[in-house]
Design brief:
- By secondary structure, the protein is mostly helical.
- It has 7 helices and no strands.
- The radius of gyration is 14 Å and the shape is globular.
- Helix 2 runs antiparallel to helix 7 and helix 3 packs across helix 6.
- The chain has a single domain, classed as YidB-like (Arc Repressor Mutant, subunit A), CATH 1.10.10.690.
């Protein structure tokens, strides 16, 4: 199963929920993963690992079951500016944004690393291409 199929399955549900999930996935990918200023996927993984979430992040990258992450853990590790950007773009509170990140970030990183490792291609996903295909479904 490819990244697109996984994101489609992840975003399945009612039309309203699907649109909301698609917006959340897109925003999280743009702000946290495709953000070259914070180092992209490698920078994000480094930040999470340095913040004490190494074993959790390793589970997302590996081919096994993903461990969950608490919003409080993300709040302690992620820059407030990044969380504010996500909240602002989605039109939700910072608390709700952290909830979305906790829900979708493990899935996103898992799907970006299907072989259990981070490669140069892992963060080279075009969000608009993926969402264009999701919206066609």
């Amino acid at each position: 199963m490819g990244l697109l199929d996984s994101l489609l399955n992840m975003a399945a549900g009612s039309t309203k929920a699907t649109k909301s999930n698609q917006n959340a996935v897109s925003t999280i990918m743009e702000v946290l993963i495709q953000n070259k200023q914070s180092g992209g996927l490698d920078g994000l993984i480094g930040t999470l690992t340095k913040g004490g979430l190494g074993n959790v992040v390793d589970s997302w990258i590996s081919t096994g079951k993903n461990k969950s992450v608490k919003t409080s853990q993300l709040n302690n590790v992620l820059s407030g500016d990044l969380v504010s950007q996500i909240a602002s773009r989605l039109g939700i509170s910072k608390t709700a944004a952290l909830g979305m990140v906790a829900k979708f970030l493990p899935l996103i990183i898992d799907k970006l690393t299907p072989d259990g490792k981070v490669t140069a291609q892992s963060s080279a996903v075009n969000v608009q291409d993926i969402l264009g295909k999701i919206l066609k479904r």
